[in-house]
Amino acid sequence: MTAAAVRFESHRLTHPSTSPPPESMVERRYTEEEEALEIKSLRRIIAAYANYQDAAERDVERYERSFKMLPTAHKKLLFHLGLKYQSLRWCISMNASFIMKMLEAFEPPFDMSQYVDDDVHAHPSILHDHSHMDCTHSSERGDCSIIAISRSNLSLDEQHDSPKEYTKRHEPSRETDNNKGGEDHMAGCSQPVGNMGMSQGAGIACNGDKNTGAAAYFQDKDVSASSAIENVALRHCTASSLKLNVPPIDVDKVRCIVRNIVRDWGDEGQKERDECYKPILEELNRLFPNRSDQRPPSCLVPGAGLGRLALDISSLGFVSQGNEFSYYMLICSNFILNHTQEANEWSIYPWIHSNCNSLSDNDQLRPVSFPDIHPSSAGITEGFSMCAGDFVEVYSEESQESAWDAVVTCFFLDTAHNIVEYIEIISKVLKDGGVWINLGPLLYHFADSYGPDDDMSIELSLEDVKKVAYHYGFTMEVEKMIETTYTANMKAMMQNRYRAAFWTMRKDASRSKACKPR
Ligand SMILES: C[S@@+](CC[C@H](N)C(=O)[O-])C[C@H]1O[C@@H](n2cnc3c(N)ncnc32)[C@H](O)[C@@H]1O
To answer: Is 277 in the pocket of ligand 1 (CB under 6 A)?
Structure first.
């Protein structure tokens, strides 16, 4: 099968500051400072992805430390937890394998060898990552090849076990453990699981000596596996670039992406897609009944996440463009859209990062395969693209004025610093008579951002949002509330539900009270 070859257009992704761009700005060019910021930001995100496994394994080590503190009788009672921790490690390694494939396929839009020296001391707060997502290591050696990727994630092909098979093979002897009063049986759990089909001694050392692990890793005989890592390392980092310690917030973002994969591309995400995307698709279908191949209507999807909605709109017969500014999202959507050979090619374990609210360990350890459809075979309409850039910057450009028949926003409006600006731009980019379909809550992403930057955050009620829309010439055609979740674990004992606002508004330029820009 050929790849979908979804075009990824790249715009500038980093906000130079929190202040608004100059009014006179017609065409933005990268300044050196902006490019440096962009590269550092991207490097930080790659580091977060690349350190996924280490961060997750540290969590498992924490569980094991707690287990070790238990009185012997309690340990005996909870003997199976040792096996669960082994399974968790296996699942982590599988997730990391997918992440590595993704990073390997990613073509950075910059020469990543630039602007490395000051990265090491860069404070995370100066590195914008464009991502305000809702879910709710590196060695000291100075060379890229020691990017902090644990050994155990090397080869998908070699990991045929299921977590159960794996833990069975690695099951500690109950007798032995009991003989030792249970004290040592967890010791087995702190070994790396990197020996699954791997050469001996090639894992990140369980004594925490990561240099040893990394060095050993490159002595591995498995050429294809090492070359995967080398490719990633060579492409994305330079000498000191991955000395960045990955802050917890970045670790969370990677885990968030894993959940977003389920929402957009997993079978398990079908319920959420039915709740969120289906009403939008039905509305588009109703509003544009005559979608000819010759002149298909156009639809813009700002904040497109992992691209499923934009793809479904394309398959419906629209020239669809997803717009997204988070590299976390873009790296992943690019991989799924352009590098998938068949449906259900990949498996991840999305729910392993929390022990809370599980009905059973099996629920927590269940895999999700994806993508549920092969994107290339989804019947996309020519012109489908993903535009990488800040919605405000990209679509404020004059060339975008009255360019779109429809704009679809799903869980996007509340990502604004200034929601009025979003609405103004949506109105501006729509043709007169064009439609805006929205679904989402008003969980303003910057509402709680107290920091040195003091980010602007305009937090309006739904009533005020509608008033603003009317001001910009919109008339309401359909309005309802839709109950839904966002990246929820359907088997968990806790799920956050939103009463999301759904509407279809039509632009009537004659009603706009907004001053026409001079
Ligand atoms: C809550 S997610 C929703 C994603 C997708 N629409 C869905 O329903 O799953 C919001 C998305 O908007 C993106 N986003 C936020 N602000 C943006 C901006 N100014 N320009 C482009 N994308 C933005 C975020 O990176 C994130 O992927």
So the answer is: no
Residue 10 maps to a domain: no
Flag whether 2 is in a domain. no
Number of alpha carbons in the 13 Å side-chain half-sphere of residue 363: 12
Say yes or no: CB of residue 474 within 6 Å of ligand 1.
no
Residue 284 lies in a domain: yes
Instruction: Please give the distance, rounded to the nearest whole angstrom, from the Cα atom of residue 390 to the centre of ligand 1.
Output: 10
Read off the pLDDT band of 6 (50, 70, 90).
confident
Pairwise pLDDT comparison (185 vs 180), residue with the higher score: 180
Is the minimum distance from the CB of 268 to ligand 1 under 6 angstroms? Answer: no
What is the number of the ligand 1 atom nearest to the C-alpha of 328? 25
- Give the C-alpha separation, 334 to 354, whole Å: 27
The pLDDT value recorded for residue 384 is 97
- The one-letter amino acid at 239: A
Last residue of a domain, one of 236, 255, 274: 255
Specify whether 203 is located in the same domain as 325.
no
Ligand 1 site, residue 411, Cβ cutoff 6 A: yes
In angstroms, what CA-CA distances link 305 with 11, 133, 264?
Answer: 16, 9, 9
CA of 304 to the centre of ligand 1 (A): 6
Flag whether 353 is in a domain.
yes
Indicate the pTM of the whole model: 0.80
Atom of ligand 1 nearest to the CA of 392: 19
The ligand 1 atom nearest the CA atom of 263? 9
Going 173 to 179 to 182 to 185, the CA torsion angle's sign is negative
324 or 12, greater pLDDT: 324
For range 142-161, the mean pLDDT: 30
94 lines ligand 1 (CB under 6 A): no
Statement to judge: residues 335 and 244 lie in one domain: no
Domain containing 164 equals: 17-255
Whether 209 and 316 share a structural domain: no
- Tell whether 337 and 358 lie within a shared domain: yes
Alpha-helix runs per DSSP H in 300-417: 308-315, 327-339, 361-364, 391-395
Query: Is the domain of 156 the same as that of 269?
Result: no
Domain final position from 206, 233, 255: 255
Angle between helices 32-50 and 248-265 (to 10 degrees): 80
pLDDT tens for 407-417 read: 999 999 999 99
pLDDT of the residue at 149: 24
